[in-house]
């Protein structure tokens, strides 16, 4: 005698399915509620600064003039960090996933994962005490030999705590995140695709170029955006490494005049801020919130487009 399992239809679902479906839907709604709550809180707390007269804002020239330099500092440090970290991270991920021997790849994978777990304050101390001082001779050489380029115009900083140093520290911080996620994506490439490319006479690099990288492109973009999110919002490491000394916009990466980032500006001034000054800092936080949201929204749209184009 045989028994048949009733079909799982919309009208007759198991209790466990209903509980799981309801929990998943509730979690999704909860995320949206929390996100909206954070945005509304920032908007409400920043409202006094948004409507305040220009001469009452820090600097006396209005909120936009105050926010623009620190927004510029945030963007330029994050962009430089991404330009430096993403190619190296992808290279590390490809080496671990397709070039290194098994034992070496496992060891390197563990090291990369451990680097991703190091607290940002540790990177900040290292950048402040060791890395910045080690870069001073390089900055002096750049100012003397290629100072005609605006990015390396002198005089070079004697402490090494510049925008470029902060960007390099951020690049080191986001490198293991991007590398670890990219490695896992590359390892998911169907083995049949790789073997088919090799069977057609492709070299290992050609196989990676035409089979592995296209398959993992969307994952690399997602990993890069996660790294960018950390770079944009990093606080303690940038606060320790960057010697912020101006509220003006400058493209000199090795000089003594450095605009702060939004996160560093808030961290340095929030404990003592009251009244309108506090609202001004929260307005800066609102700008960072909108910027991070816009970057992630654009990344999600790009990933969706990549997936749609590959089908």
How would you describe this structure to a colleague?
- Helix content is 74%, strand content 0%.
- With 311 residues, the protein is mostly helical.
- It has a single domain, classed as MetI-like (MetI-like fold, Orthogonal Bundle).
- The longest helix has 37 residues, at 15-51.
- The relative contact order is 0.14.
- The CATH topology corresponds to MetI-like fold
Work out the radius of gyration: 24 Å
Outline = globular
Mean pLDDT comes to: 84
Classification by helices and strands: mainly alpha
Strand portion? under 5%
CATH class: Mainly Alpha
Per CATH, which architecture? Orthogonal Bundle
Question: Can you describe this structure in just a few lines?
Answer:
This protein is mostly helical and 311 residues long. The chain has ten helices and no strands. GO terms for molecular function: phosphate transmembrane transporter activity.
